[in-house]
Amino acid sequence: MNSADLLIPEWPAPPRVKALMTTRAGGVSAGCFSSLNLGNHVGDDPLVVAQNRREITHLLPSAPIWLSQVHGVQCVTADRVPPGTTADASVTREPEVVCAVMTADCLPVIFCDLGGTVVAAAHAGWRGLLAGVLESTLARMDVPPNEVIAWLGVAIGPDAFEVGDEVRRAFVENDADAGVAFKPANTDGKWLADLYTLARRRLAACGVRQVYGGTLCTLADSQRFFSYRRDGQTGRMAAMVWLSA
Prior knowledge:
This protein has helices at about 45-55, 125-130, 135-140, 165-175, 195-205, 230, and strands at about 5, 15-20, 75, 90, 100-105, 105-115, 120-125, 150, 160-165, 180-185, 190-195, 210-215, 235-245. By secondary structure, the protein is α+β, with helices and mostly antiparallel strands. The protein is globular, with a radius of gyration of 17 Å.
């Protein structure tokens, strides 16, 4: 694995904060999971997934705290729970503890504070965004929102994510101006949703002003990214963040 196989956030994080997001390249999985599938719940060979995870761990100070993600809002303290805990976000103030979330179209969001004292990672598909996973994560970080920096990892883009009108209506009921994140799709009654804009709106409403990333599309780039919407059965990428010692 080399640096070309990874996304490194371009954000003004303190030197103590380290983060990366994997792509689909650099692993040993085959077929629809080719090649760096990190998900052990998608039908890939468990031994191969374990090898992929070992490859990733070589880049990290410790093994990531993998979560059992359910499109909810639960945020846990990564250094206080066992791997496999049901949650969609984690936070830590402990050095060398790796917060991680897996995605294949949903939006991964990583956070840190300006002082480099706390980091977090959240899994934010549309259900999690609507339910408040970003707000839950910020609350667990317990720092002033104007001291938080967020990076939006790669997700399905605004020209590819088709949803029903019930999704648009649910967001607009929560935020009357959220309609700016939707445009009509070619299919009658459907809309194209912009997860990046929806996330930025939720973060801004909380007082988070420094938000970076959010320019790539999983579905549009089959060479670099897994996409559940594009392929159905597929692998999972991971966004990870930690504090150096």
